[in-house]
Amino acid sequence: MSKDANSAEKRIDRFFSGPGARADDWRDLVEAAKSWARVGNRAAYDAALAELSVTEEFHGYPGLHLMAALREAAAAGDGSTSFALATKIAQALATRSFRQHAGDWSAKDEGNGDVPELVPPSFGGHTARRPYFETLIVTGVSSSQWPALAAEWRKLRRPVDGFIYEPVIVGNLEDAFCATMLNPDIAAVIINEGFGLRSRHDAPVLRSIMATAGLKDESDASALRLAQIIKRVRPELDLYMISNRDVEELAGNPEANVVRRIFYSVEELLELHLSILEGIQDRYDTPFFDNLKKYAQRPIGTFHALPIARGKSIFKSDWIRDMGEFYGPNLFLAESSATTGGLDSMLEPTGNIKKAQEKAARALGADRVFFVTNGTSTSNKMAVQALLAPGDIAIVDRNCHKSHHYGMVLAGAQPLYVEAFPMTEYSMYGAVPLKTIKQALLNAKADGRLDRVKMIDLTNCTFDGHIYNTRRVMEECLAIKPDLIFLWDEAWFGFARFSPFLRRRTAMGAANEIETWMHDPKSAAAYDKQQAEFGKNPSDEVLLKTRLIPNPRQIRLRVYQTNSTHKSMSAIRQGSMLSVKDVEFHTVEQQFKEAVFTHASTSPNQQLIASLDISRRQMELEGYGLVANAIEIAFAIRHAVNNNPLISKYFRVLGADAMVPAQYRQSGFTDYLAAGVNWANTLRSLDEDEFCLDPTRMTLVCGTAGYDGTQFKGILANEYNIQVNKTSRNSVLVQSNINNTRSDVAHLVRVLAEIAGEIDQGLMQGGANARKTFEARVKSLMTDVPDLPNFSHFHPSFRGDAGSKTNEGDIRTGFYAAYDVAGCEHIRLNDPEIDRRLKAGPELVSANFVIPYPPGFPIMVPGQVITQETIDFMRKLDVKEIHGYDAKEGLKLVRSEALAKIGRPKPAAAPKLKAAS
């Protein structure tokens, strides 16, 4: 950026900065204005105003008028007016009152009695208000005409409009891109022809990002090119084009399908205004929730089996009326077991639930979406049951959620477990290396069993935040078997769809990129070139070390993604969505319906369905800003903990370099907050690295403070009212989400500082013995950690039809072996009999799933041979919650005699007698 009297060194491309950073900039301006007004330090104010003005160009409020008023007051040397106006604007931004109060848009204090809205509207008797958004206008007209242009757009507002918007005007492609990235309030974009390419501001990071789009000179600044760029980074936005050329030809161009509507010149400005409002209304509509509200207001007699409906049994009761007073009448007025009268059936939706699911599919980039009201555990089991048949092989992350393992049992499919990389120091696993997955496929191919491998089932992102390179995994696996089905459990990652940086790492985001690539003629050429380089029979070694290119002519793209909507969006607990992008879905649609019938309740909760509908609306209209804020909150926590001299003595948040081994960070990326890191090298990491770390998931090490994870989680909850996500042996998982605020950060940091201070004081007052005890405790938590056990193998009794190189097994038969009480035995964990049998046999074979929390995944599955490392791990575990294990009875094992019966060949069926003639 050039320096002159009215500018300062500020970059417009710092996309790490979010709403909080903007608020900080305004706070700094107010402080500088106060200093000027009181002690005459004007230079600091001028510098702060010049710096702030650069990025404020991309926001509708305070807008051109108020920013001009600030500059005029400064130029007049009026410190008092500058302080008053800066304070007014900062307060309006903090409280968001400018969205509703006209007085906030005036440079003068009109004394209209407007009070900033500090409490959410639902907590008082506020009347309905029109939602506010901003519309980006990209134009080639001179910036001197922008105030007049903005005034013309404001004239289009009418009292009957359901929404109100403010124009944001820019004059070149780079500024349009920056506005789209930096302003989460933008909900629609109008692109005129004739704008320039380069910003007048300094933006080196932006230039490096834009270089990938091939933008070199002014001729590249076309309206269609900009539309495609914006749609790629923020697909939820409505785009409108105004062209002075042959609009009929442009409208017929398939590349223009990213645009909602094309207008000729400015002949129909009111139509454009109405189109913008209609586009917002389309996203705002919530078919099921809207109908549920109408249903709740109708006088209805209920003669069905749901006494709580309409709330009469609640509000007339002397004993449970407090429940009605707590929840309010609408909850009960909206309850019904009916699927008629404006409602719909979850099992076979044909009305408003179907419409709501179609809108969710649009929002998530899927072909279709299913709402699920009993959690992603059920979504996973539905997908597994619908897509796998008995005897099918699925490559499964052994550390995945238990629902996948149980799904294999239900389907009768054979899991071929693959191992994630271990993080022994923190008693957790990462994710499964691509080389491991490819090796499993190549082994199946060598055994002549590749046709039976139907699915790859992986968790993205993992509990601890490891994100796969989903596109690379799918492309390389499809290069080995082009019709593989992929099930990505993204329970914790649903929000990522609404981040332009993280979206590429989601299942649906990657599937859409692969689909686009398949239709590019260059894809077939790239495949043919690699095949020519390989020759006829490339070795496994070559295939494992090469980034494989699939044959775009043969790919059958079949991708499923499950999201716990309630974990990262505003849905009620157990709200889940199952997204589908499967070219062969028509072949499995009926069995998918059967899976829904099997698992879905016939009495789904109406409020839960409505919350899924509402969560989609919110994310389409403001999800971009909410996710940006969640990421910014996470960065604030990471920085505050790791840079505080006292807190960092005992606690730290692990960076990407600690969570992802170097061999999986091919770009050399270290951490989001490392010196010199910006979105350019972060994007390189997201594109190239095998694994990345979800910035919103923070592993807070507490073992260095002498606390194990479970203990520290309890202290935070019971003594400080702070709830965290999960624990490991020496850490807790802190997660930021769209609900968090800077106040939450302050509370957490204050608590950690208080705990660190108490530790510090205790060690100083306790003397040498206290320090010795503390160091021994830290050593036991951080150094003397048990090795993490890998999956061993299925017992031969459950591998009757297995291959020689593959490790799949009949988990269903293993599971039901536990039903034979006489065929099972129990041995306590510390019984010497365990050690004797590990050395001399017979083998110990698990009869059930054993799942300790933490780490939260099965360390034993039915039919698995138990090894020494698993026993050692269990003996060192100090967790209280272990599903599938009763310490009093011990390990449940399948007896050798029962295994022998299972392993025997089944007798041939007796021949059927011919019917008498």
UniProtKB/TrEMBL annotation:
Keyword set includes Transferase: yes
Origin superkingdom: Bacteria
Entry keyword Transferase: yes
InterPro entries in alphabetical order: LL-DAP_aminotransferase (IPR050881), Orn/Lys/Arg_deCO2ase_major_dom (IPR000310), Prn/Lys/Arg_de-COase_C_sf (IPR036633), PyrdxlP-dep_Trfase (IPR015424), PyrdxlP-dep_Trfase_major (IPR015421)
GO molecular function, one term: transaminase activity
Gene3D superfamilies, A to Z: Molybdopterin biosynthesis moea protein, domain 2 (3.90.105.10), Type I PLP-dependent aspartate aminotransferase-like (Major domain) (3.40.640.10)
Key words, A-Z: Aminotransferase, Transferase
Domain named Orn/Lys/Arg decarboxylases family 1 pyridoxal-P attachment site: residues: 286-517, 559-735
UniProt signal peptide: none
Requisite cofactors: pyridoxal 5'-phosphate
Name the record gives this protein: Decarboxylase
Native species: Bradyrhizobium nanningense
